Amino acid sequence: MINENDLNNIEKSLSESRINTSKEVIKPPSILSIREVGVSNIKEKRLFTLGNFSCIKGKMKAKKTFLLSMLTSSIIAGNDYSNTFIGTLPDGKKLVVYIDTEQGDWDSWNCISRIERMAGTKDNLLAFNLRPFTPIERCEMIEFIFNKYREKIGLMIIDGVADLVSELNSELEATRVASLLLKYSYEFNSHISLVIHENKMNDFATGHIGSAVMKKAEIIISVTKCKNIQDSSDVACDYSRGQGFEPFVMTINEHGYPYVNNSAVDKQKYKEVDEDIAPF
To answer: Across-strand partners of 80?
Structure first.
């Protein structure tokens, strides 16, 4: 039986959670948008908004972390990157936190150094390598970071979210972590961007945790290694609560920086139509 005190708490929570259409709700601000140039107009489409979380998925070595470097540096710098991405963090929420759960020390250092160089600043970025810890310890540390910096955090990246669960195919573990992400993004009005691997045999995200977070995500972005273009990946929007975006090719230049390769997009589309075309 539920005691009277619990009943009062439930009633209070329901009262606070009631959807009242008489009160205006402000649309959550975008912290990252993508610019698409059409024949007669230019559109800016939302990617990441405050109070939500996103998923970036792909197989091993698909260059998911390079895509994150491009997106994260745009948000930190608060500018237009590669004439495609527009990052905008509101005043008071300029802090970006990067959590790496799987790379070694050198690879983590190299990734964060790349983001800093691309953004042109080391300000407003905190990065942590949580690889040595258990899934429960990682979750506790993430909660500690949110509680310490609270509303100052505009974006938190978790690369990769599967390392927050003790068992990949546990529905209970998947529900626990997904619930935490929903809570943190809402309570601290931050955006959380998650990286997750795809299964080797198909394009599904790994385990129950992959299914759980993708069902709740604001946007799902897939990264696939290009078959015909060297040092490049196809980036596509699998799902979005907004308008979604057109696929594009991301290429790594000679300095190790990713960029949107607009010319490669046209070549790739042309190649799919005409298989007799010479390889690039």
So the answer is: 86
Mean pLDDT by runs of 10 across the 280 residues of the chain is: 83 88 87 84 91 95 94 89 86 96 95 95 96 96 96 96 94 96 96 93 86 94 93 95 91 92 61 34
Q: Are strands 191-197 and 125-129 parallel, antiparallel or unpaired?
A: unpaired
